[in-house]
Specification:
The chain is mainly β. It folds into four domains: 40 residues, no CATH class; 205 residues; 103 residues, Immunoglobulin-like (Sandwich), CATH 2.60.40.10; 49 residues, Orthogonal Bundle (Type 1 dockerin domain), CATH 1.10.1330. Helices cover 8% and strands 40% of the residues. The protein contains four helices and 41 strands. Helix 3 runs antiparallel to helix 4. The radius of gyration is 32 Å and the shape is elongated.
């Protein structure tokens, strides 16, 4: 069916918190306005209706039920069932009421649209239901949970409704990786609910609240972009909710608290949230922010009210940096391998996926793609096979491509000294660890003196670990294999 609507605005309005909304028209008023509609509009409507009767419907309308027995009612609805997975095959105008547990409803990138007064997907009393990959818009509540548990809402766009997601008297639900935007009241409304996870969502441009909690506790709200809402988050009569690693950006008011005590950070060094109106500096580090050196965390808390503060506000939303680059040895035999480790830190408030490349002088030897969560570090291992490289000194460089939104890129590059590629067995000379172009008693004596040492031995010297069971690959111990390699080269001079 092709639906055609004539929208008439009324001069009468009511105000809610200084935001004007059109007054609902009574049936009598609608009838009077209909009678006054011009003949031209009527002719247009009739022509459109005539056209509609001559084309095939592009979407279904009305209320669709997924019954407790698994059937779809009506059976002509554009939803295909495959065991416990229900997939949209077309756009739908109307509502869906789910009466069955333990299923997946996959929108397959189709749209579920209402008229503004009904519920989009009703999950009342349901458990273990997943809603994913849909666009849901123009409802009273786009998705409604009441006495529901283990519900997952994933990868869905929810917009232009009164409330995006309504969660009432429900627990152990997951709302993640959704776009929840431009709703009239709240993006997410949480009422008398606990132990829910709200993570990784874009909660943007909702007129009243991005997230509203009322009499709710022990919910985890993390890694969300909460931006350009009336209030970013409003916890009322709620406590012990953990709110961290979110970006609070340019909300009219970042927080509207009326709550005993919630937890606004994840401790040190994990950190709290990014606040676009935070004016502190980052010159210190440590749990008390009194140690030298910056750490990506503000030196002073972000105050919320007399009962609440973010003790460790994050300074940046997107910031990846290389802290250090180390090599497993400073001298390596030509054709043998050397390990390179890069320590990387995500100082920002977002999980980031990025590329890191290691260079020898200007030659790229390897690129890795990795994902690193907010305020965390990792060490990435590379291996440089020196086959094909001429003997000589090489500078080791690492570089991270800037992530989207990253401004401070000074620490995206790091240079670590040098590595000498030398003749095999030439690991020492008159200047100590600098090869001298020949394999002689200095080299044999150096390895023999460290015979039996491993990584934890005080005499350990990685340059003496020339090989393991695989020729040219060190094995983190100095043994007869290493002495044999040097002895075999004894007396040779680099041409």
């Amino acid at each position: 069916m092709l639906s055609v609507f004539i929208v008439v605005s009324s001069a009468e309005h009511y105000s809610v918190n200084n935001i004007c909304l059109p007054k609902y028209l009574h049936l009598e008023e609608r009838e009077m306005l209909r009678q006054k509609t011009s003949q031209l509009a009527l002719l247009l409507l009739l022509s459109l209706l005539t056209y509609a009767f001559n084309i095939q419907s592009a979407s279904a309308s009305g209320t669709i039920y997924i019954r407790a027995n698994g059937s779809i009612d009506p059976p002509t609805a554009p939803i295909q069932r495959n065991v416990d997975v229900y997939t949209f095959t077309n756009d739908i105008t109307g509502s869906i009421i789910v009466e069955k547990d333990n299923i997946v409803v996959d929108g397959a990138c189709h749209t579920l649209q209402g008229t503004g007064s009904e519920t989009g997907i009703d999950l009342s009393g349901r458990t273990n239901v997943t809603i994913q990959n849909a666009e849901i818009k123009t409802f009273d509540s786009a998705i409604y949970l009441s006495s529901s548990s283990h519900i997952t809402i994933l990868g869905t766009t929810i917009s232009d409704s009164s409330d995006g997601i309504w969660i009432s008297d429900s627990s152990s639900n997951s709302i993640s990786q959704n776009n929840i935007t431009a709703n009239v009241l709240e993006g997410i409304y949480i009422l008398v609910s606990s132990d829910n996870s709200i993570s990784g969502n874009n909660i943007i441009a909702n007129i009243f609240d991005g997230i509203y909690l009322y009499s709710s506790s022990n919910n985890i709200i993390s890694m969300n972009n909460i931006e350009n809402n009336g209030y970013g988050i409003s916890p009322y009569y709620s406590s012990d909710n953990r709110i961290f690693h979110n970006n609070f950006i340019n909300n009219t008011s970042q927080v509207n608290p009326n709550t005993p005590t919630d937890v606004w950070d994840d401790g040190y060094p994990s950190g709290g949230n990014y606040w676009s109106d935070y004016t502190g500096v980052d010159e210190k580090s440590g749990p008390n922010q009194n140690l030298p050196g910056s750490d990506g965390i503000g030196d002073t808390p972000y105050g919320i009210d007399e009962n609440n503060q973010d003790r460790y506000p994050l300074m940046k939303t997107h910031n990846i940096g290389i802290q250090n680059v180390t090599t497993s040895k400073t001298v390596v035999g030509q054709g043998y391998k050397v390990g390179i480790n890069a320590k990387i830190t995500n100082y920002g408030a977002n999980s980031e996926t990025f590329n890191i490349t290691v260079y020898v002088n200007t030659t790229s030897i390897s690129t890795q793609t990795l994902t690193l969560r907010s305020i965390s570090s990792t060490t990435v291992a590379f291996t440089w096979n020196t086959s094909g490289f001429a003997k000589g000194n090489y500078t080791i460089n690492a570089y991270i491509e800037p992530v989207s939104g990253e401004i401070d890129t000074m620490d995206n590059a790091f240079t670590n000294g040098w590595v000498i590629v030398a003749m095999i067995g030439d690991i020492a000379g008159p200047l100590g660890n600098v090869p001298d172009g020949k394999v002689d008693m200095r080299d044999i004596a150096k390895v023999a003196r460290r015979f039996g040492a491993d990584l934890w031995h005080p005499l350990w010297d990685s340059n003496c670990d020339t090989t393991g069971s695989i020729i040219g690959v060190p094995d983190n111990k100095i043994d007869m294999r290493d002495i044999a390699i040097v002895a075999k080269q004894f007396g040779k001079t680099d041409p």
